[in-house]
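Handout, section B. The chain below has 602 residues.
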Amino acid sequence: MLTKLALGGLKNRFRDYAVLFSGLVIASAVFYMFMALATNTSFLTKNSPISVTPFIFGFGAVLLAINTLVYIVYANSFLLSMRQRDYAMFMMLGAKGRKIGQLVFLETVVIGLLATIAGIAIGMVGTTFIGQWLIKTLHAPATGFSAIWLPAILWTLGFFIVLFVFSAIYNARKLLKTPMMALLHQAQTPNRIKQRKTTFAIQIVLGLVLLAIGYYSMANIAVFQLMAIPIALVTIVAGTYFLFNSVFVALISLMKRNKPFAAEQLHTFTLSQLSFRIRDYTRILSVVSILFALALGAITVGLGFTHDIPMLVNQTTVYDVTVTSPNAATRAEVNKLQGVTAKHQYTLKSDAKTVYVSKAAIDAHPLEIKANDKGLNAPSIKVNSRNFDRVIERYPTAFGVFTGNNRGKQMKVADAATFAKLGNAQTLTTIKVKDFNQNYDTIQKIVTMQQHQYPRLGNSNTDQKIAFYDIINGMYSGLAFMGFFLGIAFLAMLASTLMFKILSGANYDQRRYLMLQKIGARPQALRRSIRQEIGALFLLPGLVGIVHVLFGLQMFKTLLSQPYANLLVPFGLFIVLYGLYYLATVWIYQSIVINKDLAAKA
């Protein structure tokens, strides 16, 4: 009988459970997709371009696990809030506490297990697309990659099952310790905060001071070193809470006192709705604003890393590829290069210790190197016969790319007479292209063919740009991928968390909206009130989160050349996705609280 009642409750609240279930499915799918890559070390270390990424993915997995833990806590709270009234009714009908505890435990674990299994299935599909994107970005072959990855399945199942078992135990204990009448009326109990003006003032000042300390530590990470992160974490989290707990409450109070504004349309009702459970909202808004900052910051920094890859690679050498006396197959590949902007051929001659370049040739088309001691914006230096000795003395390693198969020999300029007497002639072709990434595969083939043609080059040609590109791209693309992935994961979870919090009270708000409809409130006015109320709950943490990000980017001044460049793309993308969650929340909430029959008659 108890099981039938429980199933009946699930059926009656199918819409609410669908929201919860879909959120848990998304969480487990995102977790599986990330773990399918993070635990596949054979794929991550198979090739040098991504050999430095296992640590990056391991760090990302820890961050994702923490974020998922926070998300599950709120999802678990939403689940309990939906069912606590039903459980209280069961107790009133004579059900024993032990049976209720078993029912709570079973329901929580079953919902979690089904959502996890569904999430893993969806995650396998998503991993295929994510993996292919990563492979293309890192220029790595698909060797070792698998969308169906057993360690990821076990990690996801184990992680979520443990979380849901502990959640089920917590739910059962909390339910059994709460008085029956409190369960029946808990969602209808107002949580208005009655504080003195001095308390509000203290919280506002304390919040601003803590935020200032956090922002200062991030801006001066070079001074605080690793301590900057825990300092910022503690002060910004605490400062955000005090700010919401004081400013948000004071703002609502001021708007309610503004009689003309409060009397307009349904503003009084909207403000009363916000203040009804304001204590819970201040906590959730604080958490959401922090997650918002983490998500937007991750995407912004990820884009920053991808933006810096070409610039950092260009600091190593001016030329995209250099070719020494190519054979027919190599010349064919050189002819396939697209968007060639500059191409010059030199004749080099060598003896046992030295490689010579003709004075006439280098004066006609000076060689170019990077002043690699000038930092990120290192200028190019044109090398001719007049400044050759001075430049090679200052930047000896920059000339290795010109010696080719004669690596290790000293390079010199020879006049026409001296050059004519030398033997062992070779050609050196320097090439620049408009888009290195577009020509990556062709350049890789050219360098590989040169290695086969000249075994002295060994298994790598570290003077070529592609060698630096592989190292930098492997590291920065891994960071960028992690930033994108964690950013989207944080966004999905924070928006779902806020959605859960808002929708958890929708069934109880339904009575108040029904009362307004019965006394003549138009459905359009009710919908406008709902949009305003939910809009405030989405907008406030979003604005605070953006401010956190703008200050937080100070930490990346030493890693990114322009951390504040190209903010429009990540901010725009994030706002659009965040807005879609807002629209979904408004639609679901309106469908619950507005009586369709009365709305049709209005």
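Note. Strands lie at 321-324, 340-350, 354-358, 367-370, 380-383, 410-414, 426-433. Compare this with the example in section A.
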